[in-house]
Design a protein that fits this description.
Length: 300
C-alpha cells in the first residue's frame, strides 16, 4: 500500500482503536486518531479531540491534517437510548456524517463510513446490498439517513454495513463474548434471546475490510459479516463450549420478553459475497476468533 494520510474518527471505541492500530503498524502511513474524548487510551498515537457534531471542528481538523482517507468509526449505537435521545442520535449519526462528507469532498479524500444491518426490518434475513432497507427503530433510521447523506454528498465514499461486532480490545467496553465469559465465570446468570439471527462480525475482520477498501480505493456499498449465520443463543452456546463454561446459568427467552424500548430486526445477517469477490474479504471462523479472544482474556 502506498503511503497514506489516514484520519480515524471515533478512534477511542473498539473498532476505532483496532483500525488505528492496524494502520499505524504500517510505518508508511501517517495516522491521526480523533474522538470526542479528551485523552486517547493508546499511548504514543497522534490524537486530537474533535466534536464531529460541530461543522467547524470537523473542518478544522481535516483542513489541518489533509487526509487521503477518512474512516468514520463514530456512532451513537445505544439502540434503546436512540428512541429517547433522538436529537443527539441524529447529530452523531447523521449531521456528523454530513460534515465529514463535506470535508472529504473539499479535500478529495476517500470517506469510509460504517453502517449496520439495523437498516433492515429482519423479516427476510441474509441481506444483500440491493435489498430495500426498512428500519424498525430510530437507530436504524439514523444510520439509513447517514447512508443517504453520503449518496448525495458528491464525495468519494464507501459504506460498510456490519452486524453483531465482537472482539477483544483492551481498555474498551466489553463486547458480547467478553461480557458473557466474565459473567459466567463469576457465576452470574444471563438471559439470552433465541430468535435473533445474525452472522456475528469479528472486529479484526471488519478492520481487514476497511484496509482493503483503502488499499483498492473501492467505492459503493459492501456488506461485512462473519462466516456463519446463527441465533444469539447458539452463538452463546458456541462460546460456552469453547471456554468450558456452565450452560445452566443461561436462560433462553424471546426478544419480546425483554420489553426493550426499540424493536430489533430478528432474522437478519449480511451476505458478504460482494466483499469477498471485490475486496478479497476473508472472514475467520467463530472458533478461530474465539481462540484469539481466549488468549487475550486469559492474559488480562
Amino acid at each position: 500500500m502506498n503511503k497514506l494520510r489516514i484520519l480515524v474518527f471515533g478512534a477511542a471505541g473498539m473498532l476505532g482503536q483496532r483500525t488505528v492500530e492496524f494502520f499505524v503498524k504500517n510505518s508508511a502511513n501517517l495516522v491521526l486518531a480523533s474522538g470526542m474524548e479528551k485523552d486517547y487510551p493508546i499511548f504514543g498515537i497522534d490524537y486530537q479531540k474533535c466534536d464531529i457534531t460541530k461543522r467547524d471542528e470537523v473542518k478544522r481538523i481535516t483542513s489541518d491534517f489533509l487526509p487521503d482517507i477518512i474512516v468514520n468509526c463514530a456512532a451513537f449505537t445505544n439502540v434503546d437510548l436512540c428512541e429517547t435521545e433522538r436529537e443527539m442520535a441524529w447529530r452523531v449519526n447523521v449531521s456528523a456524517v454530513e460534515y465529514i462528507s463535506e470535508a472529504a469532498r473539499t479535500l478529495d479524500a476517500h470517506f469510509i463510513h460504517i453502517s449496520t444491518d439495523y437498516v433492515f426490518d429482519g423479516v427476510k434475513g441474509q441481506y444483500i446490498e440491493s435489498d430495500i432497507p426498512k428500519p424498525l427503530g430510530y437507530y436504524g433510521r439514523t444510520k439509513l439517513a447517514s447512508e443517504n447523506v453520503l449518496r448525495i454528498s458528491g464525495s468519494i465514499n464507501t459504506i460498510l454495513r456490519t452486524n453483531v461486532l465482537y472482539g477483544f480490545v483492551p481498555g474498551s467496553r466489553p463486547d458480547f463474548v467478553r461480557w458473557l465469559v466474565k459473567s459466567l465465570r463469576e457465576g452470574t446468570p444471563v438471559r439470552i434471546v433465541t430468535d435473533q439471527i445474525n452472522n456475528p462480525n469479528y472486529i479484526d475482520d471488519l478492520v481487514q475490510a476497511i484496509s482493503k477498501v483503502a488499499e483498492f480505493r473501492k467505492t459503493g456499498l459492501y456488506h461485512i459479516g462473519g462466516k456463519e449465520f446463527l441465533s444469539r443463543y447458539d452463538f452463546t452456546m458456541r462460546i460456552i463450549d469453547f471456554f468450558g463454561l456452565d450452560k445452566s446459568l443461561v436462560t433462553p427467552l424471546l426478544t419480546e420478553d425483554l420489553k426493550q424500548p426499540a424493536k430489533r430486526p430478528l432474522n437478519s445477517g449480511l451476505i458478504t459475497l460482494k466483499a469477498e469477490s471485490e475486496l478479497g474479504y476473508k472472514p475467520h471462523t467463530i472458533e478461530e476468533t474465539l481462540a484469539t479472544i481466549k488468549k487475550l482474556i486469559d492474559n488480562e
